[in-house]
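Morning run. Coffee first, then this:
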Amino acid sequence: MAAVRESSLIGREDELSRARRAIGEVVVVQLLGPPGVGKSAIRRELVRRLFSEGRRVVEPADPHNEDLLSALAEAMGLVGSDDDRARAIAMALAASGAVLVLDDAHRHEKAVVALLGVIGALVADARRAQECVADVRVVLVSARALPLREARIVEVGPLAPPLATALFLRRAAEVTALPLGDDERPFVESIVRATAGLPRAIELAALRLRVLSARSLAAHLADARDTMIDSVIEHALDHATPMEVRALAALATFRGAVSSDDAEDLLSAHAPGADAEALLGALRDQSMIHRDAQGALFVAGPIGLRALREVGAEEASRLRLVHAAATARRDRPSVEDLRAALAVAAEPALLGRLVGQLHFVLGQVSLSSADLALLDRAHALASGRSTDALAIASARAEARAQAGAADALDAFRALLRACEAAGDERGAARALAGMADQHFRAFELVDARVAWEQAGARYLAVHDGRGALAATHRLAALHGSSGALAEAESLAESAASEATRLGDTQTLAHVQATLATLAFQRGEHALAISRYTDSAARARTLSMSSLLAVSLGYRALAELARGVPLAAVTLAAEAVEHARAIGYVRATGLFTMVRAAALAEIDPLDDAAREAAARQVSVGLSLLDGLYAVAGDLLAGLVDLAEARAALARGETDRAIGRAMSLTERISQARALRVGTGQRRSRPHAIDVSDDLRIVLAIVEQRAQALAPVFRERLKRVGESAHVRLLVAPGGGRFKLADHAVSLAHRPLLARLLWCLAQRALEGRSTTSAELVSAGWPNERLPGRAGTTRLYVALADLKKLGLRGLIRSEQEGYVLAAEIELDLLG
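And here it is:
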């Protein structure tokens, strides 16, 4: 039992401290909270601490005795008539300075109030007579506030989610043989939500893990027929009036905390003429609603669900409609309340207001299929050409775009047709802007440019300067992505001037970042750093978290490009911190890779730094997909390059060649990558439509070129014809002899043979026929004669490509008779 008591007190130090402080300041302290919230566990710990301080504590001998005064008199060893019992108890407490502790005080309300009246009168009389009287202290533990004017109330509410989870995990560890793994975390969160933070419910749930898995338990608790929670709150509504139960059910429709004003508005709408403030007070007195750390009101989930069941399905449906209307009137409702409201609302104007609010909120959270379904429902109910219907269609299209839905472009096209039919030119411009973004994401840059130009023209036609400014800026970014830097800079400078004229500081911050990226692409690293610094400062001032993360991250990349890795590490770490704080996964991954590359460059011979960089690489790559995964992979190549340099310094030639080969393959794959839809040949190369990829590729190639002379100096063998220099790419994918360059990318057999010959030449020895057959046909078992024949034909093909006279047969095998050098980039 000691372990249970200790675990029950997780997160209760604040309540304990407030109760202990109150005992030193006032006569009556009341621990107030709903059933199952852990009041008794707090009482036990409070009594233990009072005993440890040398205080005498008095509790009823039999806590279940309906006659409270008899139980107290028995515990204190008092005898006498019933009429004298309360006074005898009061005098004994005053004489000894004991602390009286009463659990479930609301069950003995009349006796408690009478006893406290006697104690108060006794203390007052003693003070008037200037007699010395010891301090009398009473601690009441109750689920309902007693009518005591001078009592200090210490509220005990449900545990916050992190503390509730900690309590569940500790109790689970006590009853299960195996700890809960990370893969079971979602089920743990579901279980804790179902318990609404009530410690008793949490402990009961954890005990069920003896026979159920976390997945099964979560499913059981999600079932409305599960009786565990009901057993915890069995008496919660016993003393509530029908009006109070309906009021509690109305408040339970909120999915989270709510301000007092919003709660009063809801109750007034639910029951016109009722005293909303009095109802809230009554519910607070009965521990049915609580205040969170910010002072907002909330209902413990199980108690709210119980109240909704008590009022019946028809009344509960009506209350949910009242909640939907109240949610639409709130300034900043939670996304959970908006989702609940949209699930029941049906009137187009109400749907329009709710969707408008949800549209604003959804930009800050991850969209689910359920969110899209809610917007589809609203769109179907409000179909037509009304303003509300168009607003809902717009929000629906943008939500589908945000979620990456395959039909997002079709949704914008339908929105464009609806806006044109309704004569809404501004709405049509927004639809075109949405279409442009979808074309851009599909790498259809021509269609994106046309759509942005049309959107800008429509914005200008309706005198929407900010809309036209956004279109101009996006066109600048689009030209920058496709490598048309002159056109991009001209448009960006125009957008900057217009943003300054309009006082649009947010767009100006974005434009500065675009100008920085254009400078970066031109290789003007100092200018890029200056502009990224400016955009970061503007973003910080305007609390634009995503732009701040991006500006810091790309400034880190620019510092890396100009050879200042220490500054890049610091900036990238800050960028990752900001990106992670707002859930910006792509930026978190990319800038983690920038930090890894910078760490590796600080000191390539520092094993600890390279190991730290390798750990960062595994984290960063796990967060990236699409083109950003390709850019991240190239940055990982810089870590490979540092490994290659370290291997050269240690004389580990094979390892250095392997790392260099890995980098070369990364570069080759990035250059060959095609993106978008349609036939492969019609799809653009990634580097032609992604400024991010071009920037990273330029940095990687620059580093590889800088290292190439080191390789050429350390990894070469002078053959018999020393005047002939043969450059071979790692892997043998290409070679260069004087001005004659040959690609073997589409002839992998010849590439494998050439690379095998080159490796042995760099090691200073010839290559045996068996080694060449094994390298050329790695997955085949060729008889000696067949292998020799195939090898002869393949080597003849290599000679025809320009290596005649350089591939020579010797007694030990074959040699490349030239000065062999490893060529990283060609």
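Confidence is low (pLDDT under 50) at residues 1-7, 717-722. Good start to the day.
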